[in-house]
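Changelog-adjacent note: as of this version, every example in the card shows the full chain rather than a window. The one below runs 196 residues end to end.
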Amino acid sequence: MFVIYQNGQAVCVQEKPIAFNPWKHHCGFVCNQIQQIGGEGGFQPDRFLGYIGGTLLDFYIGELPVKAIVDEVKRYFMGMGVASVSDFKHWLGLPETTFKCIYLTDGSRWVMRLGHNDEFYIHIHPGRYSTLTVRCRPSTLKTAIAYRYLFGFDEEGFEVDKVNHARKIAGLPPVESLNSASALQNFISNLRVNNS
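Full-length structure tokens:
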């Protein structure tokens, strides 16, 4: 699965018309990327973390790979007869309705919105509080990615120095104590290499 970046959004290159940012929303993708980055021997925070933004995000921790999710969404819209931007806008009910949700085969709920361009016009992300989804702040996800990159997937022991090293790589200020990093402690166990 190739990922490109357009207008600040990560999109699946070979999966038009779907726009999906797997760095922000897909645990298995993130874990695989951390492993690959480790093999390359160089972590470039701007390259890998620059597209994780917003206030809160929903992060899919289920077992469906990115390609399976994209394929299910595409099949859904093919079945609905949605084959163009105008079809999709009509399906959404724009301008009265800006998003709708669909369910995938694993029971997870996904939000469908209008994409930022006509090439990738179906923007998807996991639904808020959906099955197999956790909610976090972008800073938590960035720190967790940097932490797993630095200390591996087996590391569960938290120390403030390790957390602050990860936060520095992620371009974030240090924390005073582990009490300040409780969200990270709760979230980081989601980043495991057995995710798809």
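Structural remarks: The first helix runs from residue 22 to 25.
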